[in-house]
Amino acid sequence: MQVILIIVPVVSLIFAAISGKMGDTSSAILAKSGEAVELVVSLCGIICFWSGMMRVAERAGLTENLAKLLSPIVGLLFKGIKRGGKAAGLITMNLAANVLGLGNASTPLGIAAMRAIAEESADFDGSAATDDMILLAVLNASSLQIIPATAAALRVSNGSQKPFDILPCVWMVSIYSVVVATVSAKLMCRIRRKT
Amino acid sequence: MGFTDWIIPLITVFVLIYAAVKRVDVFGAFCEGASEGLKTCADILPALVLLLVCIGMFRASGAVEFLTDALQPICKALGFPSEVVPLVILRPFSGSGSMAVYNEIASSVGADTFAERVAATLIGSSETTFYTAAVYFGAVKCKKTRCAVPAALTADCTAWIVCGAVVYLFFGR
Questions:
Q1: Best mutation site among B4, B13, B40, B116 for testing chain A: the one with the most A CBs within 10 Å?
Q2: Do A12 and A83 sit in the same domain of this protein?
Q3: pLDDT tens string A5-38
Q4: Phi-psi region of B79 (alpha: psi -120 to 50; beta: other; left: phi over 0)
Q5: Which of A88, B4, B85, B106 could form a disulfide with A158 if both were Cys (CB 3.0 to 4.6 A apart)?
Q6: A35 and A117 share a domain?
Q7: pLDDT of res. B166
Q8: At B68, is the secondary structure helix, strand, or coil?
Q9: For position A146, what pLDDT does the model report?
């Protein structure tokens, strides 16, 4: 992270100097800081809502049941968390929301899941990501969506006759990227740990 | 719209009824959880400011255009539509940006063409990787993300080739 945080601005500076886009780059710094605040504010309501609902579900014992139900699958992939615990429940719901294409719902659940993993992982030292965190982030970074609603909407607005005719293509590429991302995350983590 | 519109309201109502049946103090529990959510928001903001600024600088600096030009010859060799290359590069950085690029592509090549289908498939089957990584790792204030970004990028960097091939397989040119 430290390295990326240094390299990206340096590379940007060099390119901005070459392409004469220093003005754009300068205003991007201002604009993006503001956008970060806007993003958090726009997410804040729904994060609070889901956190509230999750707490209600937790009190009612609902999260536990759901997590128990799906723990074989989640437990298979996520090794460092408690079986049937809070993190397992949140991960399940985050992945479910992703599959259904509920982007606005999945991000807050994912954030909550990351924090729950941090709480439950014995080997989390407060700075280095655990394997479970990496896996969750990677799964979220490659699309799991079954129905690409946004892509379809974009196609319709551009005059496509059959916006959903790309569905099989989307699925194949999605499956490909999820598998590649998961496998390479597992492999890379293993190699790094050995060295 | 379709069934996806039902999911959130149904879950909400189901949780509330289930909790009421189990005699949970719904209002109290909700407020407790929601105030925790508020704390989460305040916690992730500082990390997000820095991360989003870095992503924004990279995009504004013209580095994306440079990469696009560099990839042009490879695309020719693979039979990948060169119109879609800017989208491939921009996709991991910006969701709204890639939508704008998609609209440009679609309006220049026309709907239901090879390039348009490749572009739409690409949008439908990927996420804004850097943004997702920033938000997720920002949430736990993780300083060392280890192999997460390289792993996700391995998928992104190869998915576009698969994308072109699959669309070609289903629809031809």
A1: B40
A2: yes
A3: 788 889 889 989 988 889 888 998 998 888 888 8
A4: left
A5: B106
A6: yes
A7: 93
A8: helix
A9: 76
* A28/B12 CB distance under 8 A: no
pTM, two decimal places: 0.77
Does B38 sit within 8 Å of A129, measured CB to CB? no
The answer to whether the complex's ipTM is over 0.85 is no
Alpha-carbon distance B173 to B171, whole Å? Answer: 6
Looking at the partner chain, which of B29, B35, B120 has a beta carbon nearest the beta carbon of A154?
Answer: B120
Q: CA-to-CA distance for B46 and B56, rounded, in angstroms?
A: 16
Please give the tally of structural domains in chain A.
2
Residues A29 and A108 in one domain: yes
Could you report the per-residue pLDDT of B90-117, keeping only the tens digit for each? 888 877 778 878 888 888 899 899 999 9
Instruction: Assess whether pLDDT exceeds 90 at residue B120.
Output: yes
pLDDT band at B51 (very low <50, low <70, confident <90, very high): confident
Do residue A135 and residue A168 come from a single domain? no
* A-B C-beta contacts closer than 8 Å: 352
| Together in a domain, A134 and A149 | no
Residues A110 and A147 in one domain: no
Last residue within a domain, chosen from A103, A121, A141? A141
User: C-alpha angle with apex B159: B83 to B60, nearest 5 degrees?
Assistant: 55
In the predicted model, what is the mean pLDDT of residues A108-130? 86
Domain region containing A114: 2-141
Calculate how close chain A gets to B11, using CA atoms only, in Å: 10
Instruction: Mark whether A155 and A111 lie in a shared domain.
Output: no
Same domain, A77 and A59: yes
A129 in Cβ contact with B137 (< 8 Å)? yes
